[in-house]
Amino acid sequence: MRIITKFFENYGEMLVKAILTHLQYVFISVGLGFIIALILGIALSRLPKFSNIIITIIGIFQTVPGLVFIGILFIYLGMKPITVITALTIYAIFPILKNTYTGILDVDKSLIEAAKGCGMTKTQILFKVELPLAMNSIFSGLRMSTIYTVSWAVLTAMIGLGGLGEFVYRGIETNNQSLIIGGALPSAILAMTLGYIIDKIQNKVTPKGLKGSE
């Protein structure tokens, strides 16, 4: 207990600032990634000929280590928040895109035909049938993307842009385990907390008959 108290006395202000910076990167990146992925996922569900190519290209970025990718962007964009946000947004897109695309394609075709028979337009079918039925899949991708982004955002400290990674890297450099834990533990707590919040939001927006189904 004394060690924890001393840690907060020495690094409390720095920790709060790091958490807020970390959350800022996560919210902006996942928010942008969600919008892009949702639009792209809907578009690709209408263009199956191009879907495999585009999803494969975006998936390739997932195989590039975050350290390398941020390093490359740093060379061209410099030490600016846009460097981190660009990298994290690209990483955030894929899980949401894949799940949105898959969720829409998995909608029972008989339900779509029934909607057409009721006189619904393509837009109405999308928003009243396909997206609601794909909601669990979409939120599963959002949850995965958010949790991943929390961990990837640790790399922002590599180019001096703050976040909880500052504690981790400084702890490694000075062989200070308290600093490493001070950065790693809050990151894990943030990931679990945000995942829990997304689950609660999913529960609120998912139609009652579809809750608990995947």
Explain how this protein is built.
Helices cover 82% and strands 0% of the residues. The protein has 9 helices and no strands. It has helices spanning 2-46, 48-63, 66-77, 81-105, 109-117, 122-133, 135-152, 165-174, 177-205. α1 (2-46) packs across α7 and α2 (48-63) packs across α4 (81-105). It is elongated. The relative contact order is 0.14. The chain crosses the membrane at residues 23-44, 53-76, 82-101, 145-165, 177-198. Belongs to the binding-protein-dependent transport system permease family. It comes from Sedimentibacter acidaminivorans.
Short account of what is shown:
InterPro entries: ABC_transp_perm/SBD, MetI-like, MetI-like_sf. Helix content is 82%, strand content 0%.
